[in-house]
Amino acid sequence: MIPVEEARSRILQALAPTAAETVSLAAAWGRVLARPVHARLTQPPADVSAMDGYAVRAADAAEGAVLRVAGSAPAGHPFAGAVGAGEAVRIFTGAVLPEGADAILLQEDAEAAEGRVRVGETVRPGRWIRRRGLDFAEGELLLPAGRRLTARDVGLAAAANHPWLAAHRRPRIGILATGDEIALPGEPVPPGGIVSSNAHALAALVRANGGEPLVLPIAPDDEAAIAEAASAARICDLLVTTGGASVGEHDLVQSALGPEGFALDFWRIAMRPGKPLIWGRLGQTPLLGLPGNPVSALVCGVVFLLPALRRLSGSAEDPAPRTARARLGAALPENDRRFDFLRARLETTAEGDPLVLPFPVQDSSMLKTLARADALVLRPPHAPAAAAGEAVEIITLEDLGV
Amino acid sequence: MIPVEEARSRILQALAPTAAETVSLAAAWGRVLARPVHARLTQPPADVSAMDGYAVRAADAAEGAVLRVAGSAPAGHPFAGAVGAGEAVRIFTGAVLPEGADAILLQEDAEAAEGRVRVGETVRPGRWIRRRGLDFAEGELLLPAGRRLTARDVGLAAAANHPWLAAHRRPRIGILATGDEIALPGEPVPPGGIVSSNAHALAALVRANGGEPLVLPIAPDDEAAIAEAASAARICDLLVTTGGASVGEHDLVQSALGPEGFALDFWRIAMRPGKPLIWGRLGQTPLLGLPGNPVSALVCGVVFLLPALRRLSGSAEDPAPRTARARLGAALPENDRRFDFLRARLETTAEGDPLVLPFPVQDSSMLKTLARADALVLRPPHAPAAAAGEAVEIITLEDLGV
């Protein structure tokens, strides 16, 4: 059994980001930049007014002064002339500051009547002016390659005049559920069988984390069928199997794929849930074999598949899921040599701090418990017993779309 | 000026969830259930083995005993007979427990040879058996209406045998940017003009939060053009405008829409950034008029549009964005009467606690600063001065896809 950290690092080492494609700005949210975004213009392009009011010469605009209104400068319609001595120009937020003016008299401090305006409060030079380039300057690096685009980034790329962006292609993840005992929802279930839940749960995890899932037909426990289904691997950036990863005679993934050119890296990890986990390569395609238990499959999905997706997608963020700290709501016993990921509810204390409550029963077949969990509590190998109130590391599931 | 909380509650009050549509389980991630999901079967359907090993009668399976292997029970292929005295049946994880057996002898505690198996460690009755219904029972409520489906929920609905789900239709949000001074990225920019960033940033926010954005062509500052564009409102669940919301003569949204049947509820909010904010109804369609400044538009998007999306989508979660607590990395002055949303970076202290650092310049035109922010610091009206190290409420932007 190899440690969780080592397994993750061997998985990440074997993966490279997908190539770039052109995406429209309108479709760029959540995509990972393959090339940096530089500003194509300076923003604002000139000194502009930060408020509605009057562009004035501060020297003329002491309290009580009366100025002649020489014109108007709405946003998008710059005033053609200059502001002379004793003059003001009506101006609106975002409009270019007219020549000669060096400050803005706020609308609420101005009394306008018959082409003149009376200054209600002395104006300081430079007041309410946004300087050219306050936001960014032409050529400036705004968004680095490897950045997963937020809504704000999309706005920034738009403001910098980019209708198109270069993004890494969404990693295509083949998902192959195996087992004679499983059937798709709504289809006839064999005697003693169950309805398959892993493939579509993992597909959702892939989609939530920027990948493109390809759900393959279920393969029965038959070497030829698994080998045929696995041929779909050629068009995938990563093939994920579920089931068939443990040491049972009926766990055929390893033996079925050998003749297809499968090269195993490792297949047992010191973690709970999820000990049997295959990592290797099927021809050119990396293969991640997840356990068949639905809870194990999803927890291993968070711990290994999600980092793999981040690496494949070209994201510069830390591939490991972000952890946070929370106080334990109940004591935990000493841990054994397997890294434990406990399903837990999250509450907030009266003081507003997060409190985490592991479920008392942690069986890896209990999908309902997992669905009701808010977080996984991380218990490293040989972690000492922890009292209620102690701080532990957690992974918040909902933030991962999982 | 009305308070932020009151504005949000008036917005939410005016909105109702969209109707239901049928969605495939494969497309259900992130959708909000319009009807609850009940279990269509019991899981596991019978007592099953939790491990690979041998199904035995515990009374026969003391350390050192040798049992006759009467058959095999892989998952999906139940053993047809019963386990008699002195017998064992080879069994695999998830397989139905054969009649007569009451415990599992672990594979690693068994020594098999020539049709017999030697017990390496005494087996307790009931050991390594998952009882029928351990996960859920037929008819049980698994997922309530109003739940936004996670990957885990998709797995649970699959396991409960649902190929189809009833979800609320994605709210369709019309987005209308107005202003003579703005042009789409890559298109010719008028003199003194800027490139439009709000529409696509808001569209990304809508998409990130389960809505379907409809980006309308930019409307120039011309009443007829705005009125025409607003006619698209009829097919939207909500129309969002940006720009034109303040009191300037060139802020035409209010005046242009009056003749089209626009009924104003309120238009000024005690917040910064974002004082000018219109809320009303255009015919049957609610209308949210956001400020034209890109930072104001996005912050108001987080504070008002995102809750509106949650309400329209039928989600039972708290519509207001979730807040967390962090220590201030720098002192803040006393706040005035406007609710302040400060753009800030988030760091982690050596002790692993979140530390929040507001940017020193908070100008509402600085989109680059917003893009580099991790969080908004909430400063309620008249908040007293806060020293470095004090705890404040924050909204983490990335978790919202914003």
Plain-language structure description:
Two copies of one chain form a homodimer. By secondary structure, chain A is α/β, with parallel strands linked by helices. Chain A has helices at 4-13, 151-159, 198-208, 223-230, 253-257, 294-312, 367-372, and strands at 20-24, 37-38, 48-49, 53-56, 66-73, 87-91, 103-106, 110-113, 116-119, 129-130, 141-143, 164-168, 172-177, 182-183, 194-195, 212-215, 238-242, 262-268, 271-272, 276-282, 285-290, 324-328, 339-348, 354-358, 375-379, 391-396. Chain A has four domains: 4-17 and 170-312, 3-Layer(aba) Sandwich (Molybdenum Cofactor Biosythetic Enzyme, Chain A), CATH 3.40.980; 21-43 and 138-168, Molybdopterin biosynthesis moea protein, domain 2 (Alpha-Beta Complex); 51-130, Molybdopterin biosynthesis moea protein, domain 3 (Molybdopterin biosynthesis moeA protein, domain 3), CATH 2.170.190.11; 324-396, Beta-clip, CATH 2.40.340. Chain A has a six-stranded mixed β-sheet, with no helix packed on it. In chain A, a hairpin with a 2-residue loop joins β8 (110-113) and β9 (116-119). In chain A, α1 crosses α6. Chain A is elongated. Chains A and B meet through α2, β15, α3, α6 and α7 of A and α2, β15, α3, α6 and α7 of B. Chains A, B: It is an enzyme of class 2 (transferase). Chains A, B: This is Molybdopterin molybdenumtransferase. Chains A, B: Pathway: Cofactor biosynthesis; molybdopterin biosynthesis. Chains A, B: Belongs to the MoeA family.
